[in-house]
Amino acid sequence: MCVLEDREQEERRSRVEIEIGRGKKARRAYGFDDIAIVPSRRTRDAEDVDIAWRLGPHLLELPLLASAMDGVVSPETAVILGKLGGLGVLNLEGIWTRYDDAEAELERISEYEKAEATREMQQIYAEPVKPELIGRRIAEIKAEGVLAAASLTPQRVREYWQIALEAGLDVLVIQGTVVSAEHVSTVVEPLNLKQFINEIPVPVIVGGCASYQAALHLMRTGAAGVLVGVGPGAACTTRGVLGVGVPQATAIADASAARTQHLLETGQYVNVIADGGMRTGGDISKAIACGADAVMVGSPLARAYEAPGHGYHWGMATFHASLPRGARVQTDQVATLEEIVTGPATENDGTLNLMGALRTSMATTGYDSIQAFQKAEIMFAPALQTEGKKLQREQAIGMSR
Predict the structure, then answer these.
(1) HEC string of the chain?
(2) Candidate from 38-52, 93-107, 227-241, 385-399 with smallest mean pLDDT
């Protein structure tokens, strides 16, 4: 019986693997443009759709986090997003905690020529993080009556987390290009994620990761959420610089399977948060249908009038002192943050009213909650983006913008 099961597993594996060469096989992976959500046998009213989700003790109305990017999240935009029902994640190792007058530095960054931007940003980010500014920025968010969420890297989290917690931090995000539960180092003492998270009295989100095993091990640390995404963001160059990453549809589905395994092992549900690679409401809907509980986005929110980047945004590794892995990306500021997140939309390309699009997608396919929508049928459909869209492509409107 075991031999038969092993043979069946091997046959299944061979159907999804392709041969790169005689000595290497690979799984095929898919991005959002490769898939489509299949309508079910029922539809429902959008007003009957509930997109709320729970992060530790907190019930959030919108499954939306703003990326910890200096050009996207300021204390002001974190407050706006919090009042809309989402969660803005402030970068505690960024401009806002290095400079009293962060706005002046952000304006300087927006004025650099493309050829000099990365080099000049490296100089700006050479300014040390000031612990007193960490407390001040968290307090500014808390003073407006919304949840305060902030991000630290594994290298710095032990140094600064207590300051943030004393200022009222509600959610801690431990974030890097890739974060593992088993970091090995002969140079410094690695952060013991499991031990550290168990000492923190607030929900902790960790990431990024992009595989089943990595997600499962991060879940076993006691994290309340796991960020899934390595290199898909508009400002990220990790995939080019390091050659590392997994297309998001596959990465999310694999992490979703890890969540199920972890739930079976422990009875504890860990949120899967899709991080990056989403531009439209349709992309967000596909991320949820692939298994995400919430999404973290940056570039769509950088288009807001209130965004602190003045029409630019960049990732946390853009200014790395020796190996930058990001780019300062320019975008048009086209609408208010509220219009981008909850509408009303005045454009037809799916980049405004992101949460309204999610509700409508769920209603159209008959699902009334995030966890129900995760069971939606998905189809491999590369023609989805081009079929019947000849005039849109020629006129650069709608889906072709």
Answers:
(1) CHHHHHHHHHHHHHHHEEEEECCEEEECCCCHHHEEECCCCCCCCHHHCECCEEECCEEECCCEEECCCCCCCCHHHHHHHHHHCCEEEEECCCHHHHCCCHHHHHHHHHHCCHHHHHHHHHHHCCCCCCHHHHHHHHHHHHCCCCCCEEEECCCCHHHHHHHHHHCCCCEEEEECCCCCCCCCCCCCCCCCHHHHHHHCCCCEEEEEECCHHHHHHHHCCCCCEEEECCCCCCCECHHHHCCCCCCHHHHHHHHHHHHHHHHHHHCCCCEEEEECCCCCHHHHHHHHHCCCCEEEECHHHHCECCCCCCCEECCCCCCCCCCCCECCEECCCCECHHHHHHCCCCCCCCCCCHHHHHHHHHHHHCCCEHHHHCCCCEEECHHHHCCCCHHHHHHCCHHHC
(2) 385-399
Q: How far is 220 from 370, CA to CA, in rounded Å?
A: 23
Fold of 46-376: TIM Barrel (3.20.20)
Q: For strands 87-91 and 64-66, give the pairing.
A: parallel
Mean pLDDT within 60-69: 97
Using CA atoms, how far apart are residues 62 and 54, in angstroms rounded to an integer? 10
Dihedral of CA 45/65/215/233: which sign? positive
pLDDT for 141 equals: 98
* Domain map (residue ranges) of the chain: 46-376
Give the whole-angstrom CA distance, residue 38 versus residue 105.
Answer: 47
Residue range 132-187, pLDDT digits in tens: 999 999 999 999 999 999 999 999 999 999 999 999 999 999 998 777 666 655 55
Q: Which residues are catalytic?
A: 236, 325
